[in-house]
Write a structure and sequence with these properties.
alpha+beta; Outer membrane efflux proteins (OEP); 6-stranded antiparallel β-sheet; about 60% helix; elongated
């Protein structure tokens, strides 16, 4: 279900474009994240991948549930000349012409613990002879009840291992879906700041251009009365031209960032965003121990570690089973009869039994089975080592992100204070230049420091919010609201 805010915005965009107008929409960082996680193409792809994994899991689960199957030949016509053997052992070509109809219903059940397949059912067949001159033109074969089984012994039990691996794959997919949604939040936050910073750069460039033009006009008057040298006037004129170039570059950056954001959100309308400054930094503490706990409870990596080890053990079990002596047992019991009509076919039923043993003994394989087993054992040990190292890297990454997050929060406050000081200093320096107390070089230094402080503050603000959404992604926990971010697709 799409959020109400998205529907309203979509309607707003559509009506404005139909009217031939383009409007700028004021949005916050949180609203952009909500829009992206709702209907961005990346979010929709993540949802479809989750649905795909869900149905793959359901197909595996179906292997462990009873299956009722109807089979039929309705009808089968057989008209040809065929080679048969007469009762006296003489071969002969005989014209065959008959019509066969058959139907059966069977119930199948797999037993995962032993790898056994058991089945039971009932069946009925009818044969119609189409040869002219034959009195008994049809007959029936009944199989009122049959029960059978197939049991591999010392073989690879795929049912057993699939039952262990399939739930891990599904749990991993559920967590991967939540991670992908948080990755969407991180990516759209990056695009948000690209547009937001481009807007601030454009605003600053236009202000600098206005100040440069004002300064140039004042300086021309001073030059005409001989109060400044021509070199200083030329320097001021160059600054004015550079400011104009900066405006053009900022416009290009803003257009590029806006298009990238619109494409990421999947919007086709000509919408321009006005970003609300995300300067309200949330205040909450993140304990490294808590971050590790939430990550271990929610991240797909943890399930992936377990699944990797189980799959390696399954490969070893399969290699061992395929290398050595194997045999399987199959059997069936039931009742059957034949007759010229249905009544006769179901009377005086005969017992039917079947028992078979299949044996496979590798006599000479030139060490192939042993090599496959050793490969599987080596891969299992390698998987253990890799998982062990990945666990260490996993924990170290989380601890490092938590430490960096606290540092970035402090960096925002320091950068903001430095920017405020630089604004005040630039204003005071500019006023002093207007009254002739300082030269243009001092003013240029103040303007440069102000711009550097502004960019530093914006970079710190961007780094904090990206770290905020990155922390959510690596722990799947919202520390600000104290809730888990593991989510499911509706109905899956």
């Amino acid at each position: 279900m799409k959020p109400t805010i998205f529907l309203l915005l979509f309607f707003f965009f559509l009506t404005k474009n139909l009217a031939g107008q383009t409007d700028t929409l004021s949005v916050s960082l949180e609203e952009i994240v909500t829009l992206a996680q709702s209907d961005a193409p990346d979010a929709l792809v993540a949802e479809m991948q989750m649905k795909n994994r869900y149905w793959a899991y359901q197909s595996v689960l179906a292997n462990y549930k009873p299956g009722l199957i109807f089979r039929g030949q309705l009808p089968t016509l057989d008209r040809r000349i065929s080679l048969i053997t007469a009762p006296n052992g003489t071969p002969a070509f005989v014209k065959v012409s008959n019509l066969q109809n058959a139907a059966s219903v069977s119930l199948n059940q797999n037993i995962a613990v032993t790898g056994t397949n058991v089945y039971a059912g009932t069946g009925l067949s009818r044969l119609d002879l189409l040869n002219p001159g034959i009195s008994n033109t049809h007959s029936y074969f009944s199989n009122p009840f049959f029960f059978g089984f197939n049991q591999p012994v010392f073989g690879y039990n795929s049912l057993k291992w699939d039952k262990k691996i399939a739930p891990l794959l599904y749990r991993e997919a559920t967590r991967e879906y939540a991670e992908r949604m948080e990755t969407v939040a991180f990516d759209v936050s990056t695009l948000f700041f690209d547009v937001f910073i481009a807007q601030l750069n454009l605003r600053s460039a236009r202000q600098d251009l206005a100040n440069a033009d004002t300064l140039y006009n004042i300086s021309k008057g001073r030059f005409e009365v001989g109060r400044i040298a021509e070199t200083e006037l030329l320097q001021i004129e160059l600054s004015s031209m550079n400011a104009n170039n900066a405006v053009q570059r900022a416009l290009l950056d803003l257009q590029t960032g806006t298009e990238r954001l619109r494409n990421f959100l999947g919007l086709k309308q000509a919408v321009f965003f006005k970003m609300d400054a995300p300067e309200n930094i949330p205040v909450f503490s993140v304990s490294p121990d808590d971050a590790l706990k939430y990550a271990n409870n929610s991240r797909s990596d943890v399930i992936q570690f377990e699944r990797t080890l189980v799959e390696a053990a399954a490969d070893v079990a399969q290699a061992k089973a395929n290398r050595g002596f194997q045999f399987g047992i199959g059997g069936e019991i039931g009742f059957s009869n034949r007759g010229a009509n249905l009544t006769a076919a179901y009377k005086n039923l005969d017992n039917q039994e079947y028992l078979g043993v299949n044996i496979q003994v590798p006599i000479l394989d030139w060490g192939r089975g042993e090599a496959i087993l050793e490969t599987a054992l080596t891969n299992q040990e390698l998987s253990k080592l890799q998982v062990e190292q990945q666990r260490v890297n996993f924990e170290q990454e989380i601890l490092l992100k938590v430490k960096q997050f606290d540092l970035l929060r402090n960096q925002v406050e320091l950068s903001k204070r430095a920017y405020q000081v630089s604004l005040k200093r630039e204003e005071m320096t500019r006023n002093r230049y207007y009254i002739g107390k300082i030269d243009v070089l001092d003013l240029g230094v103040a303007v440069t420091e102000k711009e550097a402080a502004r960019r530093s503050y914006m970079a710190a603000l961007q780094a904090f919010w990206l770290a905020y959404y990155d922390l959510r992604r690596i722990t799947l926990f919202d520390f600000e609201r104290n809730v888990s971010l593991v989510r499911r697709v509706d109905g899956y």
